[in-house]
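Hey there, shall we discuss this one?
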Amino acid sequence: MGLLDSFEKGLERAVNSAFAKTFRSGIQPVEIASALRREADTKAAVVSRDRIITPSDYLVRLSPEDDERMRGLGRALHEELTALLTKHAQTQGYSFAGALRIAIEADESVPTGTVQVSSGSVESRVSWQAVIEVAGTQHPLTAARTVIGRGSDADIAISDAGSSRRHAEILWDGERGMLRDLGSTNGTKVDGQKVREISLTPDTRFTIGRTELTFRVVPVSPSATSGTRGGGR
């Protein structure tokens, strides 16, 4: 059985600083796990209906005495903390902002029996990118105006006989999006209704011909480029 089996059974311990100072009880691994989980929950940021981002860098500060005790547990503690936080994120539907890293260090200002956890902010590690998603492929909106259509000169080209060569355009100023039909033959539909021009909110779905497209605003790690390709110019 692992060090944190009791946590897996739902144990939640709130560590009171004054109590710890009086009784010098020392920190327990399950309390570190609880503190990490609370930090992930507190800093989680909702991106869309089905996307929540939480920090990936965590710093655990312990008193020198507690730090020495935890170091005696070796790599097993770090591995279980990482596995547990990863499992918690999966259960809650969180995505980490980057590769998960947990560091533990001694801090003279932390009383024995208490734990302090801090994390890197989501905003400092993630940039936000507007994209048009077509058949699972995300096309970043890199220009103020992005034309969608069947023609080779379209910024986002779709192979759909029901679409016009320059069917519709997306206007994006970095904060607001707008969908505008360009006088297409078959029209552009949102929720089954033809539209001439409509403001876009995250996860808006629209149809060109028989092709369904989705406007999204997604978090992008600085090094994350897989699954996307340039669309605007």
In short: The chain has six helices and 17 strands. Confidence is low (pLDDT under 50) at residues 1-24, 223-233. The helical segments are 5-8, 17-23, 29-43, 64-71, 75-92, 122-125. The CA atoms of residues 56 and 190 lie 37 Å apart.
